[in-house]
Records
---
Amino acid sequence: MSNDHNSLVSILALPGAAPLAARLAHTMQVEAGAVAYRDFPDAESYIRIDGDVAGRDVVIVGSLDRPNDKLLPLVFLADVARDLGARRVGLVAPYLAYMRQDTRFHAGEAITSRSFASVLSAHIDWLITVDPHLHRFASLQDVYSIPAMAIHASVELGRWIAEHVPAPLIIGPDEESRQWVDVIAATASAPSTVLSKVRRGDTDVVESIPNLEGHRSRTPVLVDDIISTGETMVAAIRHLREQATKEPVCVAVHAVFAGDAERAITDAGSSRIVTTNTILHSSNAIDLVPLLADAIQNPSGARRRLDDRG
Ligand code: R5P
């Protein structure tokens, strides 16, 4: 999407995403279109695009945390944009839901990653997201049948840590985190280690911590892609505290914060919790709007930069 196409682009917000859509539109110097949402008395949804999208590239913007209430408005919005003549309809979902149930862990379970992806793929032409939880899927293309690009916040996390945490020690809570721990540590010019984690249930997580002798003067910085129940962070903090380290800082990309997660992490002994603004939350301190705008406007450049980082 080049700059000469800017007048042919409309950014439309999902419910609750108007501030993010406005900032993206401002950064990209394109129009932020208005969408009216309301519920009928029987709780069905009413949606109206105020403005002309005929012949335009429509970019729907909104994170898909708490996804069930957002999915139908998204489907209705994508469909009406196309009905009204939009050329292409893309989705920028800084947080992409349903990526963690990526296999049948127990007999009879739904593999919701696949179902969710097939619904989205049927209604939109392309997808951009940030650090989707890719564990058993190697890439988004394993589940999404449309062009789907994942951009990564690791460099931004590393820069924030370098600027705000003196003498950090970067710690990943599990093997899966190694993919971003190495980039964050290199960006922050800091040593790093990765723990091993066993999840015994939704809210039951056990961590093993390597010996941190030799790093006691450093501030531990726990880094993860998602804070959901907070149990992963809490388990890691408890073990760090047993080793008498300094109070850890917790840094994550996606501030899902289910239930009392934030309080549990603070009570466990974290000195500060910091997240990016992929999901609006009071812990947001790392702005990814420039990264998102760049990926929308210059997808091949964004892809090249990701490839360069391996
Ligand atoms: C799991 O592999 C992820 O990277 C996160 O560690 C996990 O999703 C965090 O979830 P919770 O906050 O519920 O422990």
---
Amino acid sequence: MKNPGFNFQSTYTELPNIFFSKVKPSIVEKPNLIIFNQELSDELKLNFLGINSQDKASFFSGNLVLPNMKTFSQAYSGHQFGHFTNLGDGRAIMLGEHIISNDKRVDIQLKGAGLTPYSRQGDGKAALGPMLREYIVSEAMHYLKIPTTRSLSVVKTGEKVYREFPMEGAMLTRVASSHIRVGTFQFALITQNLKNLENLINYTINRHYPYIKNSKQKYFDLLKILVKKQVELIAHWMRVGFIHGVMNTDNMTLSGETIDYGPCAFLDDYKGSKVFSSIDFQGRYSFENQPLMAKWNLARLAETFLPLMQDDIDKNKKKAEKIIQSFSELFNKKWLNMMRNKLGLLKEKKEDQKLILDLLKLMESNSDDYTNTFNDLSDFNNLNKTQYQSFNFKDWIARWKKRRDEENLSIEKSFLLMKKNNPYIIPRNHNIEMIIDEANKDNFTPLYEMHKILKNPYERTEKAEKFTLQPRENEKVLKTFCGT
Ligand code: AMP
Ligand code: MG
């Protein structure tokens, strides 16, 4: 196969050997390309024209390795549901860093590519359902304008993978601005070699934040940047009703992108304490706990920086703590402004917090749909629906209208602001399940249809309308499972 334009480097493998293992993807039986992201391929300046589908499938299943590819897997650790473990890419293999332009480098990684030294008890493989879920949700997040890894393709391997029952095997090609995780730093820390930590931190700064490279305070600067990135990311998640499901430290990137779509889900009816993950028994990663968990993860990251700050340990520790503590205030401010925007408000008024919390309380007690309620509010005609006729809701609407009148903003502009911040379409869990069920029966039409619709999540089109429907009682997804 001719090279479709990949310009690979593997600067990550210039880190000390302990950070990675050279691994080749396993050969799979009968690769078959299910979905390919043409738009992303164009953005990556790749050109697959003239490459037949068999070669394409061979490439995206790791059967065909180009001459300049030095494939490897990454080592990392992580706190999983609060417990520290050594992990690593147990089922992912990096094809390399593709250089798009002078200042743009992305990791191209195969997920489900076979055994690696980090596979532990696993088989290194992935099933079709979870790979399609990651493809759909990561692409949806991108078009919702939320920092995220992306998906270039899904290939069916033609092999069975054995979970609770035999399933179709698959592989996803993930594109990420890097795969450096909080867990990568935790891994460096437990090697008990300061050089490893120093190498990793410098590599991260060079790759993502070169503008702080020469700062005398670069560790603190990095921490501040990461706090800000996570504040923004989690506020975005809460804007669209996204629940990540497994915010373990190995699933938080230093780039600020959402990563590792496992048992993730979107809220239908609003419930702050909502959990979908089948293994999250204590609600650790519930919808409303996400900011707290991001802060907790950042504290684990800060701990790994401390050994590098040897002079005046106490003073540095206090300084790092202060940066981590700033998360709460920054987040509250960000969240309030984000929710204001969802309600067409720009000014910062003290009473807004109560107005917002009262709406959430109402939605929760009425089991109102998070996405649809905000959409309804941006068109007064919708407020005739019976859902909004209760005394409490009418009262709230009157308060909100009064508050809105205090803006120096026309009603049209307010509605426009709302439409920009409230998606019309989210990948609803029952739709994703239906797509996966059909894909398992070799019908990919619903997958392609949804992929297309999700590209314009803020547009109210007739075609998109059916994706705004809440699940019927028998369609409700109550639990989601880790994506292996
Ligand atoms: P995740 O839930 O995808 O964040 O994965 C958590 C850890 O389990 C990571 O170290 C993965 O590489 C590993 N893992 C997940 N699935 C498999 C599998 N099928 N085989 C080997 N390792 C796996
Ligand atoms: Mg992970």
